[in-house]
Amino acid sequence: MKEKDNFEMVINLRKIKTGKRTGRSKRAIKFIRKIVLRHFNAEKVVIDPLLTRSISKNGDDKIVGKVRVVVSKIGEKIYLVRLAIKSK
């Protein structure tokens, strides 16, 4: 299988939004970490603070439905997850 050094993906957070209202942003971050661990066979996942702020921009209870992220390899089985910013 080809190495994934810089990969863009959309993560759907609908399951977290339909669940219990308290602590949704924390569960969303754990869910994103779990998705990256599973898809990239990583040992460690580093999440950018800008991504955490953009998920809970309306508060911890009102999170966004989907998030577009860029996953970059920074070391041996260590990945960085950043918010994908569209450019025109």
Helices and strands, with pairings:
Blueprint: E1 6-12, H1 14-17, H2 24-40, E2 44-47, H3 49-55, E3 66-75, E4 78-83
Parallel strand pairs: 2-4
Antiparallel strand pairs: 1-3, 3-4
Can you walk me through this structure?
The protein is an alpha+beta fold and 88 residues long. It has 3 helices and 4 strands. A hairpin with a 2-residue loop joins strand 3 and strand 4. The radius of gyration is 13 Å and the shape is globular. The mean pLDDT is 90.
> How are helices and strands ordered from N to C?
EHHEHEE
From the 3D coordinates, which CATH architecture would you assign? Roll
Taking strands numbered 1, 2, ... along the chain, how are they ordered across the largest sheet?
A: 1-3-4-2
Query: How many individual helices?
Result: 3
Shape: globular
- How many β-strands, per DSSP? 4
The fold-level CATH name is Ribosomal Protein L31e, Chain: W
**Full CATH superfamily name:** Ribosomal protein L31
Sheet with most strands: 4 strands, mixed
Domain count: 1
CATH class: Alpha Beta
What proportion strand?
25-35%
Mean of residue pLDDT values? 90
Radius of gyration: 13 Å
| Low-pLDDT residue intervals, each spanning 5 or more residues | none
Helix content: 25-40%
